[in-house]
Design goal:
This protein is mainly beta. It is 10% helix and 60% strand. The chain has a ten-stranded antiparallel β-barrel.
């Protein structure tokens, strides 16, 4: 039995409007006077490493493979109603206090096992109710970003705008536990986004910050294809930290990962090319920022 595709309109609206709201708040913040801020000298070249470690909670996650396929709800139908480990690493290169280049690696490999409560149809293959399933949702991504800091003369603070390019590397796998039934989709491609990052450091050494990468667009106008596909991404982070030394900051972080894609691409064996994949994840974590060049 299949269900008709539904559209997570709330998540879509969030991915469309949240970057704009963050931008407006950041602009409003810049209207505050900072007459007592003294420009401080810093090295013309700074290197930073950033690491996060925490957990991932699936708020919502649906996938449909082919237009005749089932809208599969991972939290209720696929066992994603648990706490998953989460970590990410990034390296940053800052030049003259104003230009920052960032390379990020974000692994995401959600593997669960579940006995189906109802029939599942994926790319024309029916998995009957009662089938024990091994499910995998693999979505590692690699992201490069550039930021320009408009508060370049205030090393302890940041108000930066820029662009990101993310490489999507996805595998969706439905396999019966005995291996007799299987459907797999894999995909790789570029995902551009706008990026904003802000930080305000207090005299006590405590600081507050936020960061967002966001985009909503017809994919075919971005990657040059002719398929009718729309996609979205939102990676929003809110954090509070403390400057331990000149080289080390510790922080607590709350991150929202959301977005997805929907539309018809190139037909393949067993598939009409249609995919609908929308997700919303929440990740609390702890992190460290290491700046080995801070005291040079």
């Amino acid at each position: 039995m299949t269900r008709h595709a539904h559209h997570p309109t709330a998540l879509r609206r969030l991915t469309r409007t949240l970057p704009l709201l963050i931008a407006l708040l950041a602009v409003a913040w810049t209207t505050r006077a900072h007459a007592d801020d003294e420009p401080a000298e810093e090295p013309p070249v700074q290197l930073r490493g950033v690491g996060e470690l925490g957990g991932l909670i699936v708020l919502s996650h649906t996938v449909q493979l082919s237009k005749s396929g089932t809208v599969f709800d991972y939290p209720s139908d696929g066992g994603q109603n648990v706490f998953f480990p989460f970590w990410r690493l990034s390296a940053e290169l800052e030049l003259d206090g104003a230009h920052t280049f960032i390379l990020l690696y974000q692994p995401l490999d959600l593997q669960t096992s579940k006995v189906l409560d109802r029939d599942l149809v994926a790319d024309g293959l029916r998995f009957p109710a009662g089938t024990a399933m091994d499910l995998r949702y693999f979505f590692d991504f690699y992201r490069g970003s550039y930021l320009y800091d408009f508060w370049w003369d205030r090393p302890r603070d940041e108000f930066a705008w820029g662009l990101s390019l993310q490489i999507r590397n996805a595998i969706i796998d439905f396999t019966s536990a005995d291996g007799t039934l299987s459907r797999t989709r894999s995909n790789i491609g570029p995902v551009p986004a706008l990026k904003i990052r802000v930080r305000r450091t207090l005299d006590s050494g405590f600081w507050l910050g936020g960061e967002v990468d966001g985009m909503y667009a017809p994919v075919k106008y971005i990657n040059g294809g002719d398929s009718d596909v729309q996609g979205a991404i939102i990676d929003l982070s809110l954090r509070a930290g403390y400057v331990v030394t000149e080289s080390v900051d510790l922080f607590a972080n709350l991150r929202l990962l959301g977005g997805g894609a929907e539309g018809t691409g190139t037909p393949e064996q067993y598939s009409d090319g249609y995919t609908a994949n929308w997700l919303g994840f929440l990740s609390p974590s702890l992190g460290v920022i290491w700046t080995p060049t801070a005291s040079l």
